[in-house]
Structure formats: C-alpha cells, structure tokens
Amino acid sequence: MAYNIVTIAGSLRKDSFSLKIANALAKLAPDTLKLEVVTPAGISFFNQDLEGAPPADWLAFRDKLQKSDGVIFVTPEYNRAIPGVLKNAIDVASRPYGKSSFNGKPVGIVSNSPGPLGGVSAAKTLQNILPGIAGPIMQQPEIYLNAVGDAFDAEGNLTKDSLKPVLQAYIDAFAAHVGKHHG
Predict the structure, then answer these.
(1) pTM for this one?
(2) Which of 113, 136, 147, 165 is most buried, most CB within 10 Å of its CB?
(3) Is the CB of residue 53 less than 8 Å from the CB of residue 96?
(4) 93-141, pLDDT tens digit by residue?
(5) Which SUPFAM superfamilies does this chain map to (predicted)?
(6) What is the residue range of 146's domain?
(7) What per-residue string of b and e applies to 71-85 under the rule 16 or more CB within 10 Å gives b?
C-alpha cells in the first residue's frame, strides 16, 4: 500500500521551480508514497464571512487534504516569506478553527530559490505557521535548495546531477517519517 501525499507547489507560475521540484520528488518517491502535485491555482481568497457556506474550491481542496496521508510543501521565497497564494491555501485548508485539513498529517517542507540562500526564510515561515494546524513536521533532513535556475531542462526534467541525491535522500526520509506516523 502506498501513502497518498499531497505535494503543494506554492507558486502559480507555469514553469515554476517549485512545480518542477515537486514533480521531480514525485518521480523519485519510493513505492510506499504516491505524490499528487497540486498548486494554489483556483483557490479563491479566504474570507471568514464565507465559512458558513464555503465555496466549492475550498471544499475540494480541504477534501483532497483530508483524504491524504501527508503533505509536502515546496515553496519559493517571495520577499523573505512564502508566496501569498500559498498562505491563502493554508488559511483555506486550516479552517474552520479546530478542523484543520492538515490535522495529524505528517508534513515536509522544501524551499527553493535560484539565489544562494535556497528560500530558507520561506521554510522558516512555514515552520512558524504550521504548528497547531498540522501534524508532525519532519525535522531532518532540512532542505533549502539554492541555485535551482539551471537544474531542469525545457521539459521540466531534473538535469542537475548534484540535486538528484539531495532530493532522493529527502523523499526517502519523508517516506520513513510518514511510515512512522501511520505505522
């Protein structure tokens, strides 16, 4: 049996590095994990006034998360934090209060940047947001992928040899993390 993992690529850009990294993780995942890669596209803005009759896009996103066995966030860094669209998706999924769709789900965080810092501030933002609304966050290995600008070919395939073992080690560790919390 494979655990179903929702992998949220936190960017809307069609050729985003986060989406390419999420897809690379899906290809590298061991047989014990099945990664479904999604983006925040189509999730309307959170507004507490709508909680009584939530929009269909909110309900569909929440349902997908509730049926999953874990979540991986793959995020770029915008202005020393996560993109607004990713924060909005988290806000939608974490409501109503006490009924977060992330509750009990093992979580992984992968940040990335074409620059030298690898999106570390975005990862730290998620580490601040998720406790209290999500399950156990995998602590190690931490992964902040820098210089990802030349890591993929035109079709989105991983071509940077130095990156593959890093991603493989991460997804293997995440599989163990999920197994530990569902075993």
Answers:
(1) 0.97
(2) 113
(3) no
(4) 999 999 999 999 999 999 999 989 999 999 999 999 999 999 999 999 9
(5) Flavoproteins
(6) 3-181
(7) bbbbbbbbeebbbeb
Whether 76 and 17 have beta carbons less than 8 Å apart is answered as: yes
How far is it, in rounded angstroms, from Cα 119 to Cα 40? 18
For the chain, what is the largest distance between any 2 Cα atoms, rounded to a whole number of angstroms? 50
State CA 94 to chain mean position distance: 14
Cβ-contact 68, 5 below 8 angstroms: yes
The average pLDDT across 75-94 equals 97
Nearest-angstrom CA–CA distance, 147 and 57 = 34
Q: What is the CATH number of the domain that holds 72?
A: 3.40.50.360
For the chain, the average pLDDT equals 96
With a cut of 90, say whether residue 42 has pLDDT above it: yes
